[in-house]
Amino acid sequence: MTALLVSLMVFLGPAGSAEARAGAAAAADTVALPDSSALPDSSSSRVLGDSTGRGPAPPDTSGAMRASVLADTARARGGVDYLWVLRGALIDPAKLDHIVERAKAIGARGLLVQVVGRGDAFYRSDILPRSEALGGSEAPPDYDPLEEILERAHRSGLEVHAWVNCMLVWSARSRPRDPRHVLNAHPEWVAAIKGGRPLSWLKPRERQRLAIEGVYLNPAHPRVRTWIASVAQEIARRYPVDGIHLDYIRQPDVAVGYDPTTRARFALQTGVDPERRDRLPAPQRAAVDSEWLAFQREQVTAVVREVRDSVCAARPGLPISAAVVADTVRAMRSTAQPWQKWVQDGLLDRAFPMCYAPSVQTVMNQLVAFAREFGATDRLVPGIAVFNTSVAVAALKIKGARTLGFPLLALYSYDSLFLKPGTWPLLRTSLGSEPHDPGP
């Protein structure tokens, strides 16, 4: 503990100090950042948010006590509460038992299982086409990954939250083959960059140059909101999931909103065509730019609200969470994701900030800011990455989050934790956890 506190004093010191700079440099890496609930007794999760979906959660006077109990339990387990499970791990039915066994052995509370990847389904859907990845596997045609992992996980006492990618609907080099895929069925829903070019028109090399993960939908289109909400509702109705977990519930890190629908709606609201903002005088331009950013945040928020309303109509009280951008300045200004307000207003029961920065200093700065704003609460679950740093650095981030009082933590990802043999045993030792052995 003494060594940990000394390390934290270094990383929590003034950002400009020599110690802080040295610590940040030692933990830094150059890998780019990707995107990547109820308790076992689901009735205990109902206090996390407003189960009606009509407003913010009521005051929770037991929150501090619950957070303290969760933190003590987490320290005893070794620090991993939730694991993101990427869709590729679901392709082979024979590997589902390994996922559950390993998660149980390391003391995880639950799994965030990616069942909507790129506008396609890893479950039985009447809305989305079946994932092309499943068609290339040796699994039987009636294989339902979500149903299978739910049965195994619940039997072992683990939660399963359905991880749904929302705005991002395609990233492969060639277009989806199924005519029902949203890119083929509704090309008018695709977000557009300046000049009106839809993201689906960009070549892979151009997307790479602009640092866009793939093709995003336009949240200002009302039918897009309804479509995303219907997917979440379908899962909530059809499966006994423990929550709906939203990802890519944001804009890309490039200026979009220049499709006809968004331009018309903003022009009706403000009298200005966003495509012509640069022609305005400087003072007026600044005011319109501010309105434009607020307008885009409102569109993404409207998607979250419609998802919540639809899920609550199907299963009142089912927790809704989201993986969110940890850099709150970037979240607000670049990706139109005001997730802090979503938590405060009760639109989300939990937010999972993706604290994936390789630098320990960066992650600790983010965690300190979250702790100051939200306090010790189980409504905020920091997500720590193991794919882009050493095990020792990942362990330091986990220990730092626990020391700051965060009762729940998530790890990105299950795949990274077990891709290289020996990663979990080394992390377990670094965390001082009990010697569970989930296998290689």
From TrEMBL:
<dbReference type="InterPro" id="IPR003790">
    <property type="entry name" value="GHL10"/>
</dbReference>
<feature type="region of interest" description="Disordered">
    <location>
        <begin position="34"/>
        <end position="64"/>
    </location>
</feature>
<feature type="signal peptide">
    <location>
        <begin position="1"/>
        <end position="20"/>
    </location>
</feature>
<keyword id="KW-0732">Signal</keyword>
<feature type="compositionally biased region" description="Low complexity">
    <location>
        <begin position="34"/>
        <end position="45"/>
    </location>
</feature>
<protein>
    <recommendedName>
        <fullName>Glycosyl hydrolase-like 10 domain-containing protein</fullName>
    </recommendedName>
</protein>
<dbReference type="Pfam" id="PF02638">
    <property type="entry name" value="GHL10"/>
</dbReference>
<dbReference type="InterPro" id="IPR052177">
    <property type="entry name" value="Divisome_Glycosyl_Hydrolase"/>
</dbReference>
<dbReference type="InterPro" id="IPR017853">
    <property type="entry name" value="GH"/>
</dbReference>
<feature type="domain" description="Glycosyl hydrolase-like 10">
    <location>
        <begin position="90"/>
        <end position="367"/>
    </location>
</feature>
